[in-house]
Amino acid sequence: MARYDRAITVFSPDGHLFQVEYALEAVRKGNAAVGVRGSDTVVLGVEKKSTPKLQDSRTVRKIVSLDTHIALACAGLKADARVLINRARIECQSHRLTVEDPVTVEYITRYIAGLQQKYTQSGGVRPFGLSTLIVGFDPYSEKPALYQTDPSGTFSAWKANATGRNSNSMREFLEKNYKETSGKETIKLAIRALLEVVESGGKNIEIAVMTHKDGLRQLEEAEIDEYVAEIEAEKAAAEAAKKGGGASTSASS
Amino acid sequence: MECVFGLVGKGFAIVAADTSAVNSILVHKSNEDKVMVLDSHKLLGASGEPGDRVQFTEYIQKNVHLYQFRNGIPLTTAATANFTRGELATALRKNPYSVNILLAGYDKGVGPSMYYIDYIATMHKIEKGAFGYGSYFCLSMMDRLYHPDMSIEEAIELIDKCIIEIRTRLVVAPPNFVIKIVDQDGAREYAWRESIKSPDVSMA
Question: Are the Cβ atoms of A93 and B63 closer than 8 angstroms?
Answer without folding.
Answer: yes
